[in-house]
Design a protein that fits this description.
- This protein is an alpha/beta fold.
- Helices cover 34% and strands 22% of the residues.
- The chain is globular, with a radius of gyration of 17 Å.
């Protein structure tokens, strides 16, 4: 794990953010280039984690290395603490004044060019993904809806679709001439609304007749709860399906 910066400038939001990178274990052994997955809620992904838990993706990537499915650069972007909901919300709602579009502009215009310049990445859209859970899953959906030429891989766990009713209409209008892969996950023990919500999202994304390029893997976990531990367990399967 490398800490790119504890205070990486986010000019689009007028703030700074900790950015960390997980490189494949054999990154320094050659000159290969790698896909990149940008993950939201960086505090909850590895290391000490947060009070809410930890995905332990560093351990998961070590396990995937045995299957030679570890060749992805993971960029962990910390959330904005009390600004988290606002930064992951694409619209103004009763919950917050949405700053999600500015947040995605930061990733596309500032962070991605920096990562592509510093590391041996595969910068093309088919090798660039965004992922997250809950509100982090919602803004990952909008990464493709708003920047379809940049993001071609989406890891969407338990998205907080209830906060943004417009998401279904936005997904219905989504059209991209190039392949997009989206891994949708939801647990039946999260709430009675989660599984119907991701099923409706899937239908919206696939309903357009010209959307033959959208590929979706939807996983319904009958024991799934709205926890970091559950999302961490699902992470290896999602990463393999998206990139391998």
């Amino acid at each position: 794990m490398e800490t790119v910066s504890e205070e990486f400038a986010v000019p689009q939001l007028g703030t700074t953010r900790r950015i960390r990178v997980l490189l494949p274990h054999d990154y320094d052994a050659g000159d290969a280039r790698y896909p990149v997955l940008y993950l939201n809620d960086g505090q909850n992904l590895f290391g000490e984690g947060s009070p809410f838990g930890n995905w332990t993706i560093d351990q998961k990537l070590a396990i995937l290395a045995h299957r030679h499915h570890h060749g992805v650069i993971v960029v962990a972007i910390d959330h904005g603490e009390e600004e988290r909901i606002a930064e992951y919300q694409p619209y103004n709602t009763r919950l917050a004044e949405g700053r999600g579009r500015a947040y995605l502009d930061f990733v596309v215009q500032t962070l991605k060019p920096f990562i592509d310049a510093r590391y041996r990445t595969r910068p093309e859209r088919a090798k660039t993904g965004m992922g997250g859970s809950s509100m982090g899953g919602l803004i990952s959906l909008y990464a493709a809806l708003l920047h379809p030429t940049v993001f071609g891989r989406l890891l969407i766990f338990s998205p907080a679709l209830w906060t943004t009713p417009k998401a279904y209409g936005d997904a219905l209008r989504f059209s991209c001439p190039e392949p997009v892969r989206a891994y949708l996950y939801g647990g039946e023990r999260e709430s009675r609304y989660m599984v119907p919500a991701i099923e409706r999202l899937q239908q919206s994304l696939l309903q357009k007749q010209d959307n033959k390029t959208v590929q979706i893997e939807m996983v319904v976990d009958p024991h799934g709860e709205h926890t970091e531990n559950r999302w961490g367990r699902e992470f290896p399967r999602a990463l393999e399906w998206l990139f391998f």
